[in-house]
Each structure stands twice: as C-alpha cells, then as structure tokens.
From TrEMBL:
Catalyzes the attachment of tyrosine to tRNA(Tyr) in a two-step reaction: tyrosine is first activated by ATP to form Tyr-AMP and then transferred to the acceptor end of tRNA(Tyr). Residues 1-31 are annotated as: Disordered. GO terms for biological process: tyrosyl-tRNA aminoacylation. Its main location: cytoplasm. It comes from Populus alba (White poplar). GO terms for molecular function: ATP binding; tyrosine-tRNA ligase activity. This is tyrosine--tRNA ligase. Belongs to the class-I aminoacyl-tRNA synthetase family. It catalyses: tRNA(Tyr) + L-tyrosine + ATP = L-tyrosyl-tRNA(Tyr) + AMP + diphosphate + H(+). One of its GO terms (cellular component) is cytosol. Residues 17-31 have a biased composition (Low complexity). Its EC number is 6.1.1.1.
C-alpha cells in the first residue's frame, strides 16, 4: 500500500468544537450570569497548570458552552482526591458555563488489566464510583455533566474512532508513545503488553472523539494531553485542546508524591468510616512549623478550604481557644510561627473531612441501589490477583510449603502455596501467629491451583521485625476457600 504522510483524517475529526445547543435553559447557571473575567478566573482556578491561558480566554469569549473532558479507569476504591476534588472542579466548570463529559474508561481499565481484566467487574466499579459522586454533591442536574462509557461509545462509532487512533499511532514513533505510559501508572522500564503500548494513542484519540475544548485531567496525564496538541500541529489544525491540569494530592506519609490505592495508609477513601479517617490523619506526616511537603496542609488547602471557605480549629482556652481561619495564607502564617500545633490541626482536619464524607456514608447505608453496589464492590475490591504482578508465578512456585516474596512497595508481601497440608513446625506456626496479631490480612485465589495470601503490613516498626517473618509457616486452620477480613 502506498504511503502518504500527509493524509488528513476524516472530516469528522477536523473540528474540536460542536455547535452549541439552541437553548441553554437546562443549565440554570448560564455564562450570562458571570462576566467573561469571572468565568475565566473560575475555570483557571481548577488547574495548577494551563496550556494556554490566552487560548482559554478566547474560547470562553467565543463559545457559550465549551466542552470539558475528564476520564477515569474504574479500578477499585475511590480516594478523596478523585471523589471530592473532582466534584469541586466539575462544579466550578459547570458554574462557569462549561459542559462536562466524564469518560468512563472501562475498555482502558481492561487494557491495563484492572480488576483482572474482567469487563463486567470493571463496569460494576464504574457504577459505584458514579454513585459516590452523586452522593458527595457533584451537580449533575440537567445535561451539565454527561457520563460516557468508552466501550459503548467506541462500539457505536467505531468508524470514527479507530481511523483516528490509527492516524495518531502512524504519526508518532514508539519512544514518543513510551514517554506517555505514566498515564497508566506505569514506567518506561515496565514490561508492557502490546495493548498497553497502544493505550496512549487511544487516550489521545478520546480528546478529539469527544470534541473536547478543554482537557481537565491531573498533572500525571499531562504528557498525553501535550501529545494531542502536537498531533494538531502534525495535521495543521488551528484549534488545539486546552490543557487544564489539576493538582495531585500527595500521600499522607512522608515522601509520598501522590496517594496510592495499594497503600491504604497513604489515602483517605470515600467510604472510610469516621474512626478510620481519624486514625489515618493522626498517623499522617505533619512536622511542626514546616509547610513544604506537609500533606495535612495540602488536604486543607485543596479540599477543606474550597469546600467550606474556612477552617475551624477547636482548642482548650489554655492552648489558644477556638479559631476560625478565613484563608489558607492566614493558617500558614500561624503554622510556620508555631501558633498552630499539629496536635490541634490534625483533629480539626479529621473532623472537616468526616463532615464532607458523612453524606456518602449515609447514602450507601440507606439507598438500596447504592447499598447493593457497595456490597458487590466490597466482595471484589480487596482481592488483588497475584498474576497482575507475577504473570509466571504459577510455573515458578512448586513447593507445597509457603514461599515469601518481598516485592512491590514497602510493607507488601505475598505468600503462595498449593492447597495441600503444609508440613510446618509448631515453632513456625507460633511465630506466624505472633506476627499476625499486628497485621491486616487479605487473600484470594489465583489462577487454577495455587492460592495466594496477601499480607498488608501496616504495623511493622522496623526492618529487623520485617525480617522476622517466617519463610515457611503453617496456616492450616485459617486458609480455606476465598475469604478475607
């Protein structure tokens, strides 16, 4: 077949914009209620970075109903940044007169081997996450917010989607695509499937497929959004998607650049109980008088202040008494001077977060549909298939006795065994029982015959104690079937 590098994409791909509806009456907060500058400032406040601001201002001036795009993989639990921060951002954008398209990337989650690649389970998780956004207060009345399932949309318009994906893939070299793999939570050094290498081309195509004017994703998705703008240069397209990248909340422990679903202690999750939130915040890294790299202050700045427009600290009179901070700058000044101590800040932060999360807890305890979704997701979300991380583990582990592998992030261990009676000594069993008192256990079946036991080690104090884990242990009475607590 003759090559032609200048072959343009089909006409459907040419426009980033769509004709606005004749009436915007379904959106009660129309742009006419705000000035152009107010709309610009509201939209701009969503992003830590904007590429480019002049393009954003021009878009808001000329288009009454710009289309914003955000997407997510249904992959398990929802942390507070995905739940509350996204709600805050979506409500700001719709208030400024934007139409929000939220792309539920179920096919992408399958490509990325989330939920073991089971599309049915992925869809269940997607429905659960939408239910959380409704409960926490995302303004989805009318047609301001539209949830679109990637599998449904791509199948119904395959003749538009796949030529676009192929055109993007054809115009980019493999090293350029590999630089985008961090959008999947992977690195360039990871061993990737062919499907995962294709993933960035598909996500880039989503932007044009949805006719998005603004890409409103996290800073970790920046590279693929820049790829979309470069693609516009390649095909000589004038109107480029504007990149509005929101801030990434760090993990709660020292040195964690972002929250991790695989480490529960690093994040507040949307369905965490009140006591869990208090415990996690109490253990969070919060050095006195130090603002930079302080995750507790990050939570206050990006969640509490946007939600309440204030931060209330309750103290005994001898410790300074009650104080309400009206701005983050005022709080920072007090904290740096030592006027506000972590011992007073942490309980106030936990209380504020619990106030935000309480409607979600109420919704999932009272609404029958939500309660059923939560039950179905809970049955799946705590079980991580060992094969996700060790594809050849079933061929490697031959012993009927337990094997211990140190792998993945710190404090994550896996035990694997065949379902036969292991011959472990009484001393080994006692060691395991003693160590298990401070651990939280999860287990699930993996593949055909082997079973994997997942240990999440939250309470091991030091390396020496970790090394005390027995290499071979007896769990005869505790491992039967597919259980977990």
């Amino acid at each position: 077949m003759e090559e032609n590098d200048q072959t343009p994409p089909s006409e459907e791909m040419q426009s980033l914009t769509v004709t606005p509806p004749a009436s915007s009456s379904s959106n009660p907060t129309t742009p006419q209620l705000l000035s152009l500058e107010e709309r610009f400032q509201l939209v701009r406040s969503v992003g830590e970075e904007c590429i480019q601001e002049d393009e954003l201002r021009n878009l808001l001036e000329k288009k009454p109903l710009p289309i914003c795009y955000d997407g997510f993989e249904p992959s398990g639990r929802m942390h507070i940044a995905q739940g509350v921060m996204k709600t805050i951002n979506v409500n700001k954008l719709t208030k400024a007169g934007c139409k929000m398209k939220i792309w539920i990337a179920d096919w992408f989650a399958q490509l990325n081997n989330k939920m073991g690649g089971d599309l049915k389970k992925i869809k269940t998780v997607g429905e659960y996450l939408i239910e959380i956004w409704k409960a926490v207060g995302m303004d989805i009345d009318g047609d301001k917010v539209e949830f679109l399932w990637s599998s449904d949309e791509i199948n119904s318009r395959a003749h538009e989607y796949w030529p676009l994906v192929m055109d993007i893939a054809r115009r980019n070299k493999l090293p350029r695509i590999m630089r985008c793999v961090q959008i999947m939570g992977r690195s360039e050094q990871d061993e990737l499937t062919a499907a995962q290498i294709f993933y960035p081309c598909m996500q880039c195509a989503d932007i044009f497929f949805l006719k998005a004017d603004i890409c409103q994703l996290g800073m970790d998705q920046r590279k693929v959004n820049v790829l979309a703008r470069e693609y516009c240069d390649d095909i000589k397209r004038k109107n480029k998607p504007i990149i509005l990248s929101h801030h990434m909340l760090p993990g709660l422990q020292q040195g964690q650049e972002k929250m991790s679903k695989s480490d529960p202690s690093s994040s507040i999750f949307m369905e965490d109980e009140e006591v869990e939130v208090k415990t996690k915040i109490k253990k969070a890294y919060c050095p006195p008088q130090i603002v930079e790299g302080n995750p507790c202050l990050e939570y206050i700045k990006h969640i509490v202040f946007p939600w309440f427009n204030k931060f209330k600290v309750e103290r005994n009179p001898e410790n300074g008494g009650e104080k309400i901070y009206e701005s983050f700058e005022e709080l920072v000044s007090d904290y740096e001077s030592g006027g506000l101590h972590p011992g007073d800040l942490k309980p106030a932060l936990a209380k504020a977060l619990n106030m935000i999360l309480q409607p979600v807890r109420d919704h999932f305890s009272k609404d029958p549909k939500a309660k059923d979704l939560l039950k179905r997701v809970k049955n799946r979300r705590n079980f991580l298939l060992l094969s996700d991380h060790f594809p050849v583990v079933n061929h490697r582990w031959k012993s009927p006795r337990f094997s211990l592998e140190k792998s993945l992030p710190p404090f994550l261990f896996y035990l694997g065994f065949y379902d036969r009676k292991p011959q472990a000594s009484l001393e080994e069993e006692r060691k395991c029982q003693s160590l298990a008192r401070g651990l939280h256990w999860h287990w699930s079946s993996v593949s055909v015959n082997p079973i994997a036991l997942r240990l999440r080690i939250d309470h091991i104090k030091n390396v020496q104690e970790r090394k005390a884990l027995p290499y071979q242990v007896d769990m005869r009475a505790r491992i039967r079937g597919n259980k977990g607590y």
